[in-house]
Design goal:
88 residues, mainly alpha, 3 helices, 51% helix, elongated
Length: 88
């Protein structure tokens, strides 16, 4: 059985690691940034759907929805970067 060539580990930028830790995400050197980006994007979509459901349930007034969406986007700014920008 042949072994695959050794891959150089991914070195995530410190600012990206700090952002990812806020979501409980701790990628290792062998974790592809594309996979982590997809996971965090899924987490954001879950949060935005949850926020929409809270609005529909009447948990807060409709006038507050847009500011809550903006706040959520700011918390997930890291997904606005392409995965290759996450590494050094």
């Amino acid at each position: 059985m042949s072994q695959s060539p050794a891959r150089k580990p991914f070195r995530y930028r410190d600012v990206i690691l700090e952002a990812l830790w806020q979501y409980g995400v701790h990628p290792r050197g062998e974790t592809p940034p594309e996979l982590v980006h997809e996971f965090v994007s899924d987490l954001y979509r879950y949060e935005i759907r949850r926020l929409r459901n809270e609005l529909l349930r009447g948990d807060f007034p409709k006038r507050d929805y847009s500011s809550r969406v903006v706040a959520l986007r700011q918390r997930y700014r890291v997904i606005s970067l392409r995965p290759e920008q996450w590494i050094e």
